[in-house]
Amino acid sequence: MPYQEEHVTSVRRWSDKTFTFTTTRPEGFRFENGQFVTIGLRPEGQKLIARAYSIVSTAEDDHLEFLSIHVPDGPLTSRLARVREGESVWVNTKCTGSLTVGHVQPGRNLYMIATGTGLAPFVSLVRGRDVYEAFERVILVHSVRTVQELAYREELEARSGDRLRYVPTVTREPFETPERGADLFRSGELARRLGLPPVDLEQDRVMLCGNPNMNREMKAYLESVGGVMTSYKGVGNFTVEQAFVLHRAGD
After folding, report:
1. Whole-angstrom Cα distance, residue 41 to residue 208?
2. Residues β-bridged to residue 7
3. CB atoms within 10 A of CB 8
């Protein structure tokens, strides 16, 4: 696959398990907000170690931004967690993904349900314009275990308003919203708390990006209430990103 050498331009650590880094952007590199790309490192004397990462930056930015988990024994993330400005990162010049605006039918409200670093593609989407042209309102729910893992919290709170509702939840520490985002959605409590009409998949759409259990639970629930997942058969009323699962499994 076509990889191009780029360089780290900044690093920000959110917690001992999560961090953000930015890199230069390959010349001519194009992507849609919400997509992912394969990036990697070439340890001295070793082959390229690469994994799929959703892009946090927008298609209009002159750099690339990524949110990563740190797995101490992970072949890639254990090394990525130590990268510094100026060091090399290899970026595949081809990208893909199922969390773009075009992967769900236009509708009333778009619910984005994320756990952990599954937040990444949704940050890209809410930073852009297209998602607000396709939907009346965007609801972004981010569930983590500890408060420190609420990456981009300040930015998302600042962006929040009538068009964007941001709902952070923390499950392992005292927090104003201790429930899992998926549970809030399924119970109907999420819409009630936000003063929104009950979710109706005839009008509302859902995007999922998170741990395998959440993805499976939500997929089964959505299909049980009339949801149709986007696939090669056509664009449905909800979509799931599987690349996040592959990355987490192969850290």
Report:
1. 28
2. 88
3. 17
Tokens representing 103? Answer: 């992967």
Tokens 């740190």: give the residue: 70
Largest CA distance in the chain: 58
Beta strand 3-13 with 18-24 is antiparallel
pTM of the model: 0.95
Give, as one character, the DSSP assignment of residue 198.
P
The one-letter code for the residue type at 110 is L
Alpha-carbon torsion (88, 89, 90, 93), positive or negative: negative
The β-bridge relationship of strands 88-96 and 164-170 is unpaired
Tokens of 21: 């880094």
* pLDDT tens for each residue of 154-211: 999 999 999 999 999 999 999 999 999 999 999 999 999 999 999 999 999 999 999 9
* CB 35, CB 112: distance < 8 Å: no
Q: Which domains does the chain have, with CATH numbers?
A: 3-96 (2.40.30.10), 101-250 (3.40.50.80)
Is 233 strand, coil or helix? coil
Instruction: Give the CA angle between residues 37, 42, 43 to the nearest 5°.
Output: 140
Helix (H) or strand (E) holding 27: none
Contact 65, 57 (CB under 8 A): yes
Tokens 């990524």 belong to which residue? Answer: 66
pLDDT tens-digit profile of 92-120?
A: 999 999 999 999 999 999 999 999 999 99
